[in-house]
């Protein structure tokens, strides 16, 4: 039920045209935390991104928003379980101004240990899988949609997926119906979070 509400909220947001990037900070923000998740160092851009997302810090003792600690904890737990290769986690958020952002947490190797956290503008490859799931695309529809985003023709998609061009057109038509668009350009814009590009 919660997943359905989140999906519907995301669909509404996309339909309203509020998902495109706007005036993003020019560079990613970087935060270094130690193994106890205490902040060691940050770049000014990190705080710009956090402010833009409207995330609130839990306390002065924990200056990062709880969401970032949650993502970092996922990496720490994977590491504690002995995951190989060293774990990495990411999450995507949409700021109040419509900017899609990705937060990545990766394990630092070496004597110091700890984690590096980056906060930056989400790229189409960060958003497309999330948005395809939000529009309830089937696995095959997602494969077709990725190739549409890449600019392949129906014939090119058919060759890549070893299906007929007619089947590709059927899938594209079904995808258009689910997403509520009628052109490939618009489909690519919606599925990469760039609805302002239409």
Provide an overview of this structure:
With 198 residues, the chain is an alpha+beta fold. The protein has 2 domains: 21-122, Beta-Lactamase (2-Layer Sandwich), CATH 3.30.450; 126-197, Winged helix-like DNA-binding domain superfamily/Winged helix DNA-binding domain (Arc Repressor Mutant, subunit A). The protein has 8 helices and 5 strands. The protein has helices at residues 2-15, 44-53, 66-80, 124-134, 139-149, 154-161, 165-179, 184-191; strands spanning 29-33, 39-42, 88-94, 100-107, 115-121. It has a 5-stranded antiparallel sheet with strand order 2-1-5-4-3, with helices on one face. Strand 4 and strand 5 (115-121) form a beta hairpin. Helix 6 (154-161) crosses helix 7 (165-179). The chain is elongated. The two termini are 32 Å apart. The relative contact order is 0.14. Residues 14-22 have low confidence and may be disordered.
Brief overview:
This protein is an alpha+beta fold.
What class do helices, strands and sheet pairing give?
Answer: alpha+beta
Strand order of the largest sheet: 2-1-5-4-3
CATH fold name of the largest domain, please?
Answer: Beta-Lactamase
Radius of gyration: 19 Å
Tell me the name of the CATH homologous superfamily of the largest domain. PAS domain
User: Percent helix among the residues?
Assistant: 40-55%
Count of folded domains: 2
| Count of alpha and pi helical runs | 8
Low-confidence regions: 14-22
Ends: how far apart?
A: 32 Å
Largest sheet: 5 strands, antiparallel
CATH architecture verdict of the largest domain: 2-Layer Sandwich
Total number of β-strand segments?
5
What coarse outline follows from CA principal-axis ratios? Answer: elongated
Mean pLDDT figure: 83
Elements, N to C (H/E): HEEHHEEEHHHHH
Assembly type of the shown chains? Answer: single chain
Portion in strands: 15-25%
- What would CATH call the class of the largest domain? Alpha Beta
């Amino acid at each position: 039920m919660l997943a359905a509400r989140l999906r519907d909220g995301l669909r509404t947001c996309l339909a309203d045209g509020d998902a495109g990037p706007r005036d993003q900070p020019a560079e990613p923000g970087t935060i270094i935390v130690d193994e106890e998740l205490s902040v060691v160092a940050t770049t000014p851009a990190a705080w710009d991104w956090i402010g833009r997302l409207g995330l609130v810090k839990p306390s002065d003792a924990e200056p990062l928003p709880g969401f970032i600690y949650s993502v970092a904890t996922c990496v720490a737990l994977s590491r504690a379980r002995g995951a190989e290769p060293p774990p990495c986690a990411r999450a995507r958020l949409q700021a109040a101004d419509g900017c899609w952002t990705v937060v990545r947490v990766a394990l630092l190797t070496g004597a110091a240990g700890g984690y590096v956290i980056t906060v930056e503008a989400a790229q189409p490859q960060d958003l497309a899988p999330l948005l395809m799931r939000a529009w309830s695309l089937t696995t095959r529809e997602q494969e077709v949609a990725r190739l549409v985003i890449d600019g392949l023709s129906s014939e090119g998609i058919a060759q890549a997926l070893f299906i007929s061009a007619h089947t590709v057109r059927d899938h594209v038509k079904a995808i258009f119906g689910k997403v509520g668009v009628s052109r490939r350009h618009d489909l690519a814009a919606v599925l990469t979070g760039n609805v302002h590009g239409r």
